[in-house]
């Protein structure tokens, strides 16, 4: 199958008007010039590698769209799968959290385990390649035991080490965190203050969490599961995470911390919504600032997959590497950090995971192709024949 008349974004350059041939689900040939009688004609649109999303928090919202309103688990997964495909994500890591009981039922051990098991059973019938990013709160005492069972079953592709205690990490600015909590929970400021105090007291009562952190890291290294840290806010924390074998620093809080993570060899990851808006809702590091400084490696959907494409194109305008460097944030870089050597680039011999998009006041994603098969289209791309790769 030939795709022709595209602006093709490779890892190190852009082909202004070229063509790609797909065979047996792989990229078989790339040309710098268009071909006649192509199966899909791009009319100058962008052809990008499919997005590899290492951190998406969306499943929980699909299952519980409002507080205490539960939808069928399979329905939520089907809906999220379609949304991801429609936004160019061809490989998705569902970020599912294991937290203390005080965080609510949707993040309980039983419910999160059930979501992971259901997602695993449904993988073969979904549009996107779904994997699991298990997020372990270090104040969760059973974290190592739960992780061991899931890793033994081959259910996890990535784990992250989290501490959402107010006063540090993502919530180091207590004033911003308290105001955000009051808005999110629709409570007054005084009630939010009391909730913050309660969370801080629970963390103090829990005591030293070193055994949880080291236990999870040792287990992940033994099983070959990638490890990420979460909300690194000090140089000391980054150094500790590096010593534990962490490969990815998710959402570093300051530019100094992001630079230190990079110096130690960790890939840095931030949210596409942050990059698109130009600021963090928690008042932390701006993804645009990190990218301009050369210390941003990965863009993740975080909680809004439709932000990936416009964020990538926005960053392409401010960085030294142009479009190839910006596109790599959502494709080649996360694939490399997660050990997925078969995808993430438009390159002969790799999986034909591709995205057809176009620029504009608001960029539009038109077609998503996974392993050579069209899995989503809005019908805007002409001269298309549904030909098996």
Secondary structure layout plus pairing:
Blueprint: E1 2-9, E2 14-23, E3 26-31, E4 40-41, E5 46-49, E6 51-56, H1 59-63, H2 73-86, E7 89-98, H3 109-122, E8 129-137, H4 143-152, E9 158-162, H5 174-185, H6 189-206, H7 210-223, E10 226-230, H8 235-243, E11 248-250, H9 255-263, E12 267-271, H10 272-277, H11 287-292, E13 298-300, H12 308-316, H13 322-328, H14 332-337, E14 354-358, E15 364-370, E16 373-377
Parallel strand pairs: 1-4, 1-5, 6-7, 7-8, 8-9, 9-10, 10-11, 11-12, 12-13
Antiparallel strand pairs: 1-2, 2-3, 5-14, 14-15, 15-16
Can you describe this structure in just a few lines?
By secondary structure, the chain is α/β, with parallel strands linked by helices. It is 36% helix and 24% strand. The strands form two sheets. Strands 1, 2, 3, 4, 5, 14, 15 and 16 form an eight-stranded mixed β-sheet that branches. Strands 6-7-8-9-10-11-12-13 form an eight-stranded parallel β-sheet.
What does this structure look like?
The chain is an alpha/beta fold and 389 residues long. Helix content is 36%, strand content 24%. It is built from 14 helices and 16 strands. The protein has helices at 59-63, 73-86, 109-122, 143-152, 174-185, 189-206, 210-223, 235-243, 255-263, 272-277, 287-292, 308-316, 322-328, 332-337; strands at residues 2-9, 14-23, 26-31, 40-41, 46-49, 51-56, 89-98, 129-137, 158-162, 226-230, 248-250, 267-271, 298-300, 354-358, 364-370, 373-377. Strands 1, 2, 3, 4, 5, 14, 15 and 16 form an eight-stranded mixed sheet that branches. An eight-stranded parallel sheet has the order 6-7-8-9-10-11-12-13. A hairpin with a 2-residue loop joins strand 15 and strand 16 (373-377). Helix 4 packs parallel to helix 7 (210-223) and helix 12 (308-316) runs antiparallel to helix 13. The chain is globular, with a radius of gyration of 21 Å. The model is unreliable at 384-389 (pLDDT under 50).
